[in-house]
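ok trying this again, last paste got cut off
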Amino acid sequence: MNVIGNLPDLRLGISGCVACPLHEGRTNAVPGDGPADAEVVFIGEAPGFYEDKQARPFVGQAGKFLDELLESVGWTREQVFVTNVVKCRPPNNRDPLPVELDTCESNWLKLELRLVDPKIVVTLGRFSLERLLPDERIGRARGKTLGWGDYTVFPIYHPAAALHQPQLRNVIKEDFQKLPGVLRSIRAPGSSSDNLDQAAELPSQSDEPEPQQLNLF
């Protein structure tokens, strides 16, 4: 049974994890990154090349777009918690195998969520969405609030989707604009606010069709 009780110890545990074969080919395991009291957690699929080298999530091109999205609503990376379902880069960026997803979810992802205890869990792409809500599909769930246990889940296409399908860039931006309003709506009445409140909610648009089937998204 995992008895880790804080994020620094959790990061150490992830960094030394050998629970599945992915550890054999990694440069670094990639723990989640962000404050322990973050109100919003973003969950992607798995580290890529740059993440594997730097031991930090979302530091490549998709990470730059994520930073741009955060800035568009007045947030910063220092205010949110960013992680992946799988903590080690799969060879050649292939899709994670079910056993790899199961191992990281049960050993690490659920513990990250329990320690941070966010108000919103933003799933980035189909892999993280389907781990939490197996019956949902990103094309119909994106931009909507869903329930998963005690958490509010808000699915968005993976930022890397916009690198391969530029038409999704505005769709992702549109969904992202809803996040400050979602956060305000689920805060307890009278709770203290922080500078995540600086962003204004924009009106929503109609759903977009499912993108072409790609890895990650």
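PB: full thing came through this time. Residues 198-217 have pLDDT under 50 and may be disordered.
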